[in-house]
């Protein structure tokens, strides 16, 4: 895998990123260590985490993932210098009282304090890519569809950038990014950074997969023209695009008991559990099999080879799953397959957006 540069930063990463939100919930520390070790062996130098993880979010596992990664780094002398380590500060927590008391805002002081806490848990002196997990502004995200201009706004983008600038100046952060952002948000972060000499965002981490290609509805042009890199998360749509639910549904007889959408009711209530998303997944998975591919191969090859995507984030629960997903890297999709993928999208749109 040839490395890619993230935006205008000096970060060079593998085009596959190891996502870690299962660590501390579905994945215990010993298994997490094995996954991290194998990822390095496979040429992955990019690891993404967040203060909020593990997922599904709950008070008992808040910060568990960063803590596990910190233990791993402390037991692997010299490994930190080989890695690009990314983490995220949670946006306004609202429904999560264990995160900053459920605050409906994310202040500059919050950002700085959260970064210091992440550095301590990760047992490192610097975070390579520090991201705001979701906007402070009231925008549609995590399955929401509509912007409501009457809802209160929080800390300004300028103030958030000033806090990030403080962290960069102090040498605690190398580059900054966003997550679950809109075209407007990206433009404002870039505009204000350039206007005030503050850190320019390098990346945006948004969902991008066969069941949600909404990135292609304006955000991709924004990222392209402003030289901001897309980090695509959930390329397998929480397992819907692996085919493992095709014959059983999410909770029917024979459904995989340890899979996220089977195990966690809170996840089924989100965009992944929609009937329309499941129906579309069946179509894409059938298409894969018609062309001699596994559903996983179709879904990952689609993301891996998109010009829009700088790095695809893989969330796994075992070494075997990691190896299977990385092995898809060389898979090429024919023009016929890509045309039929587009035909399904035209009919079924983006049911897991």
UniProtKB/TrEMBL annotation:
Pfam families: Aldo_ket_red. It comes from the Bacteria. Residues 15-344 form the NADP-dependent oxidoreductase domain. Keywords: Oxidoreductase. GO terms for molecular function: oxidoreductase activity. The keyword Oxidoreductase applies. Signal peptide: none annotated. This is Aldo/keto reductase. It comes from Rhodoferax fermentans.
């Amino acid at each position: 895998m040839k490395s890619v540069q993230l935006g205008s930063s000096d970060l060079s990463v593998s085009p596959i990123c190891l996502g870690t939100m299962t660590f501390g919930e579905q994945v215990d520390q010993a298994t997490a260590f094995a996954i991290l070790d194998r990822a390095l062996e496979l040429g992955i130098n990019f690891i993404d985490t967040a203060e909020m993880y593990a997922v599904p979010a709950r008070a008992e596992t808040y910060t568990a993932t960063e803590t596990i990664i910190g233990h791993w780094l402390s037991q692997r002398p010299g490994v930190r210098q080989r890695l690009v380590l990314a983490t995220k500060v949670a946006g306004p927590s609202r429904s999560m009282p264990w995160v900053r008391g459920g605050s409906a805002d994310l202040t500059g002081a919050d950002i700085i304090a959260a970064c210091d806490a992440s550095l301590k848990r990760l047992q490192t002196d610097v975070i390579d890519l520090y991201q705001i997990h979701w906007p402070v502004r009231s925008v549609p995200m995590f399955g929401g569809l509509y912007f409501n201009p009457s809802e209160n706004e929080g800390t300004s983008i300028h103030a958030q950038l000033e806090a990030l600038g403080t962290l960069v100046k102090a040498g605690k952060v190398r580059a900054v990014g966003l997550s679950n952002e809109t075209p407007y948000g990206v433009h404002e972060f870039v505009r204000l950074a350039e206007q005030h000499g503050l850190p320019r965002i390098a990346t945006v981490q948004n969902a991008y997969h066969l069941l949600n290609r909404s990135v292609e509805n304006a955000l991709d042009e924004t990222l392209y023209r402003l030289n901001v890199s897309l980090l695509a998360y959930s390329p397998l749509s929480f397992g819907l695009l692996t085919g493992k639910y095709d014959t059983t549904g999410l909770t029917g007889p024979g459904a995989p008991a340890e899979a996220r959408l089977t195990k966690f009711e809170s996840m089924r209530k989100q965009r992944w559990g929609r009937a329309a998303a499941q129906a579309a997944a069946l179509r894409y998975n059938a298409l894969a099999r018609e062309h001699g591919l596994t559903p996983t191969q179709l879904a990952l090859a689609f993301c891996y080879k998109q010009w829009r995507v700088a790095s695809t984030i893989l969330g796994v629960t075992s070494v075997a799953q990691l190896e299977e997903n990385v092995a898809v890297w060389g898979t090429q999709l024919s023009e016929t397959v890509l045309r039929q993928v587009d035909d399904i999208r035209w009919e079924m749109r983006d049911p897991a957006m």
